[in-house]
Structure to design on (815 residues):
C-alpha cells in the first residue's frame, strides 16, 4: 500500500509547473483550488478552535465548545483527546478537511485579546493538551493546523509588531507546544503568525519555518499563512511558506510560477511545496474521493449541515464542568438543598458569554439561561433574576432567541439592491461578515445585502437597537428608519477595521412580531459586514434592585465577567478590571448578603478586589453553549468543579514582568522577561499572585503519601499515594515541579515537569506515577545549540498547585 508521501510523489509528476503553483494559494476564503484533470478536489478549511464554523459564521449553526483556557483548566489529557474526536465529527458535517486550531501560543500578558484561545501559560501543560487534541482530530482524517507560529502574543499592532526574543526563551517557552505537535502528534499543518520575530515576518522566517520546523523537527506537513499574512513571493516561498490564504492569490500562485520561470525560486522548492499539499490532500481522504466527494460523514460545501448530537453535547458539558475552577469556598458550595429563595444576578447570568470574539466564534445551536438551568435543578426553590448592571457596551447580536426563524438574506452584485439577488440564504445571527468574495460575487467588487427578520421582543418597555458595520447600512423597524449608518464613525469593530457602534431607542410591543430589515452596502475590498443587536433599554436603579433582591434571598449567585467585544481578535483589553459597574455591584451585593457565590465568566484573568469577602468564587471561563447547565450542576453538587488554573491571576498588571515591555514601541516588543513567564516569574521573585498557577478546589480533600523515586537519567518516575480523605467522590490534579540544581544560567525557581489527573471515591487510595522526560532537568544552551541537563542535586516537589507543595524529594541527576 502506498504511503501518503508515495501517492503525493506520483501525482506530482502529473502536474505542470502552473498547476503546482496553483496549489500554493487559496482560490477563495476557505478553499484550495481543484485540479480536475488530476482528480484533485477542493480542499476546505474552517476556523476553530472551539467549534467548527464552516464557511460562514451564521448560515449553519455549530456546537459551541469551551474556550482554550477552559480546556487548559481541565488538565485532562484523555478528555482533550475525546474533544478532538468530537471536533473531527463536527468538521465532517461542514465538509472541512483542515481545522484551524488549536491555538498553542503562550500568553505573556493576560490582557492580550486572544488569551482565551490558548491552553495555558506553561509549555508542558500546553504541549500535553496539544498532542491529545491533535491526535483526537487527525485520527479521524481531519487535519489540525496549529497556530500561530510563533509568538503571536498580543493584538496590539499584531500584523507588524516584532517580537524581540532570544533563542533560549523561544526554545523553552514559546516553541515546545509546536514541537510536541510535530514530533509526537505528527500534526499535518502549521499556521504562520502575522507578527515578526526579531525583525522578520514569520511567513518569511527561514530559520523558523525551514531550519527548525521542517529540518530539525522533521515536519512533513504544510505551512499555511494566517489570513492576509503573506508579504512576498520569493522571500516567503524560499523561507518555507507552502500556502497563501485566503485567495485569490496576491503573492503566490501565478506569481510563484513566474518566479520559478525567472530563476528566483528553484523548481525543487515549488515541488516540495506542492508535494506537501498533495500529501495533505491524501491524508484527509480527498484523493480517495476524487473526482467527486464521497458519501456521509463528509459533506460538500453546498451540503453543510447542523447536527445536535447528544454525545457531543454531553462532552461539551463535561468539558465545561471539568474546566470550571473553584477559586474560593467558605463552606458555601454545593448550595444547601434546604434553601428556598435564590437570587441570580448579573447580565451574564441570563445569557452566559459562550466564547470570545473574532475568528473563534460560532453560531451556537442553542442557548440556556442560568436561572432556567438552576431552576430545573432545584424545582422546589424560588429562583429570581435581576440584571444589576450591564457588561457589554452594545447589545449582543440578534440570535434565534429573538429571531426564531433567523434572517432571510439576499445578496446583490451591485451597490443598490437592484435586479434579482445573486444568492439567497438564511442566517441565524445578526453578526454578518464576509471575507474575500461575497456569496455569489467576486473579490473587490461592490455588493449589497438585504436582510429581513421577524423580531419578537420578550421584555416590556423601550428597546435599544445597535449597529456596527464595515461599509454602510440602515436599519428599518416596521418600515421606519431607526438606524442610519450611511456615514459611520471609525471604530474598533470587525478586527479593528470597522465602525463605532451606534444605538437607537425604540418603543415596541413585547410578545408581538415586528419586521426588521437591514440594508447594507460594502465599501472595503476583502472584508464586509454588519452587526445588529437588540436588548431592553436599561432601567435606572439596576444595582439597587439587585441589592434588594439579594437582601431578600437565602443565597445569591452573582455572575460577572467580560464579553466578546472586549476579549477578541484585533484588540487587547485595557486593564484587568471588570468592565462597567460590576465591581460596585459585587461590593454592594456582598454587603447585602454575604452568602454569595461570585461566578466569573471571562476567558482570561480579571482583577477581583472583592474575592476575600465572597463566600465562594467560581471561574467558568467562556464555557460554550452547555455552560449554564454545567454551572447549575456544579452549584447544586450534581457535579464537582474539576478545573485547576492554567494561568496565574495577578493582583495587578504591574506585578507581571512582561508588562514592563508591553505593548512595545517603534514596532518592537522586547521579551525582557525571558523564560520567567507566568508562575515562573512569580515563584522566582516572590511576588504574591491573586491566585496561583495550578490552584483549584473541589468538594472533597486529598492527602499525599511519601514520594518514591524509581529509575535514573531520562527514565525516571516519582510515585505518590493519593487518598481521597473526604466524604464524596472527587478529582485531584497531582503536579510535579523540578527545582534547584546547578546551572551556569539563571533558571526559574521551579518548573512544572509532570502532572496527572486522578478521580477517587471517598476513602479510596491510588498510587499516582509521574514520569519525568529527558528535558525535566534541562535548559537550552545557545552556545552548543542543544538541551543541557547539568549534573547535580535537584528537588522534586509534588503538590496540588505551584504554591501548595505537599511533598518533596531530592535526586542526584547525571551522577
Amino acid at each position: 500500500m502506498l504511503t501518503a508521501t508515495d501517492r503525493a510523489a506520483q501525482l506530482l509528476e502529473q502536474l505542470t509547473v502552473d498547476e503546482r503553483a496553483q496549489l500554493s494559494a487559496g482560490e477563495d476564503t476557505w478553499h484550495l483550488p481543484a485540479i480536475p484533470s488530476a482528480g484533485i478536489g477542493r480542499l476546505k478549511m474552517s476556523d476553530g478552535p472551539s467549534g467548527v464554523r464552516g464557511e460562514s459564521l451564521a448560515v449553519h449553526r455549530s456546537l459551541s465548545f469551551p474556550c482554550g483556557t477552559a480546556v487548559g483548566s481541565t488538565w485532562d489529557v484523555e478528555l482533550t483527546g475525546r474533544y478532538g474526536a468530537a471536533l473531527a465529527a463536527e468538521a465532517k458535517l461542514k465538509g472541512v478537511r483542515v481545522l484551524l486550531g488549536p491555538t498553542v501560543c503562550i500568553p505573556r500578558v493576560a490582557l492580550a485579546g486572544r488569551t482565551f484561545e490558548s491552553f495555558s501559560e506553561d509549555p508542558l501543560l500546553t504541549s500535553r493538551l496539544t498532542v491529545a487534541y491533535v491526535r483526537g482530530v487527525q485520527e479521524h482524517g481531519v487535519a489540525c493546523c496549529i497556530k500561530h507560529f510563533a509568538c503571536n502574543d498580543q493584538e496590539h499592532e499584531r500584523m507588524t509588531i516584532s517580537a524581540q526574543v532570544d533563542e533560549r526563551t523561544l526554545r523553552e517557552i514559546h516553541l515546545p507546544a509546536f514541537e510536541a505537535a510535530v514530533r509526537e502528534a505528527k500534526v499535518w499543518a502549521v499556521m504562520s503568525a502575522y507578527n515578526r520575530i526579531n525583525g522578520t515576518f514569520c511567513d518569511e522566517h527561514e530559520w523558523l519555518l525551514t531550519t527548525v520546523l521542517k529540518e530539525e523537527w522533521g515536519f512533513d506537513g504544510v505551512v499555511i499563512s494566517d489570513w492576509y499574512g503573506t508579504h512576498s513571493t520569493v522571500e516567503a516561498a524560499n523561507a518555507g511558506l507552502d500556502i497563501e490564504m485566503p485567495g485569490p492569490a496576491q503573492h503566490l500562485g501565478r506569481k510563484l510560477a513566474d518566479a520559478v520561470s525567472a530563476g528566483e525560486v528553484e523548481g525543487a522548492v515549488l515541488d516540495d511545496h506542492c508535494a506537501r499539499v498533495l500529501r495533505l490532500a491524501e491524508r484527509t481522504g480527498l484523493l480517495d474521493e476524487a473526482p467527486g466527494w464521497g458519501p456521509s460523514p463528509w459533506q460538500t460545501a453546498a451540503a453543510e449541515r447542523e447536527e445536535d448530537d447528544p454525545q457531543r453535547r454531553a462532552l461539551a458539558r463535561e468539558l465545561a464542568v471539568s474546566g470550571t475552577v473553584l477559586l474560593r469556598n467558605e463552606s458555601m458550595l454545593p448550595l444547601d438543598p434546604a434553601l428556598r429563595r435564590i437570587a441570580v444576578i448579573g447580565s451574564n447570568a441570563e445569557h452566559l458569554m459562550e466564547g470570545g470574539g473574532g475568528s473563534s466564534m460560532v453560531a451556537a445551536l442553542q442557548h440556556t439561561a442560568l436561572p432556567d438551568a438552576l431552576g430545573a435543578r432545584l424545582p422546589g426553590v424560588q429562583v429570581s433574576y435581576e440584571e444589576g448592571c450591564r457588561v457589554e457596551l452594545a447589545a449582543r447580536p440578534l440570535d434565534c432567541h429573538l429571531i426564531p426563524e433567523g434572517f432571510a438574506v439576499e445578496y446583490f452584485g451591485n451597490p443598490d439592491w437592484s435586479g434579482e439577488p445573486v444568492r439567497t440564504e438564511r442566517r441565524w445571527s445578526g453578526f454578518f461578515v464576509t471575507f474575500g468574495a461575497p456569496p455569489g460575487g467576486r473579490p473587490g467588487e461592490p455588493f449589497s445585502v438585504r436582510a429581513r427578520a421577524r423580531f419578537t421582543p420578550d421584555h416590556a418597555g423601550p428597546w435599544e437597537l445597535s449597529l456596527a458595520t464595515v461599509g454602510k447600512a440602515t436599519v428599518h423597524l416596521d418600515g421606519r428608519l431607526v438606524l442610519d449608518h450611511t456615514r459611520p464613525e471609525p471604530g474598533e469593530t470587525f478586527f479593528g477595521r470597522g465602525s463605532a457602534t451606534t444605538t437607537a431607542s425604540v418603543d415596541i410591543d413585547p410578545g408581538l412580531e415586528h419586521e426588521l430589515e437591514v440594508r447594507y452596502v460594502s465599501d472595503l475590498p476583502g472584508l464586509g459586514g454588519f452587526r445588529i443587536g437588540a436588548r431592553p433599554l436599561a432601567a435606572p436603579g439596576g444595582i439597587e434592585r439587585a441589592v434588594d433582591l439579594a437582601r431578600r434571598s437565602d443565597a445569591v449567585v452573582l455572575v460577572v465577567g467580560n464579553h466578546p467585544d472586549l476579549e477578541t481578535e484585533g484588540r487587547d483589553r485595557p486593564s484587568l478590571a471588570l468592565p462597567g459597574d460590576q465591581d460596585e455591584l459585587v461590593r454592594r451585593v456582598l454587603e447585602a448578603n454575604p452568602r454569595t457565590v461570585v461566578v466569573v465568566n471571562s476567558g482570561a484573568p480579571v482583577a477581583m478586589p472583592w474575592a476575600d469577602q465572597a463566600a465562594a468564587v467560581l471561574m467558568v471561563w467562556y464555557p460554550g453553549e452547555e455552560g449554564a447547565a454545567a454551572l447549575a450542576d456544579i452549584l447544586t453538587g450534581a457535579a464537582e468543579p474539576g478545573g485547576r488554573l492554567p494561568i496565574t491571576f495577578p493582583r495587578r498588571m504591574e506585578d507581571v514582568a512582561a508588562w514592563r515591555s508591553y505593548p512595545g514601541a517603534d514596532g518592537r516588543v522586547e521579551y525582557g522577561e525571558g523564560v520567567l513567564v507566568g508562575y515562573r516569574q512569580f515563584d522566582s521573585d516572590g511576588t504574591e499572585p491573586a491566585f496561583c498557577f495550578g490552584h483549584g478546589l473541589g468538594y472533597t480533600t486529598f492527602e499525599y503519601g511519601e514520594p518514591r523515586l524509581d529509575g535514573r537519567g531520562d527514565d525516571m518516575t516519582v510515585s505518590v499515594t493519593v487518598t481521597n480523605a473526604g466524604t464524596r467522590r472527587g478529582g485531584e490534579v497531582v503536579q510535579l515541579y523540578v527545582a534547584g540544581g546547578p546551572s551556569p544560567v539563571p533558571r526559574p525557581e521551579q518548573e512544572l515537569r509532570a502532572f496527572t489527573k486522578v478521580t477517587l471515591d471517598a476513602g479510596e487510595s491510588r498510587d499516582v506515577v509521574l514520569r519525568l522526560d529527558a528535558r525535566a532537568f534541562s535548559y537550552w544552551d545557545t552556545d552548543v545549540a542543544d538541551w543541557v541537563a547539568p549534573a547535580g542535586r535537584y528537588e522534586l516537589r509534588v503538590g496540588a498547585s505551584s504554591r501548595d507543595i505537599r511533598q518533596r524529594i531530592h535526586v542526584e541527576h547525571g551522577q
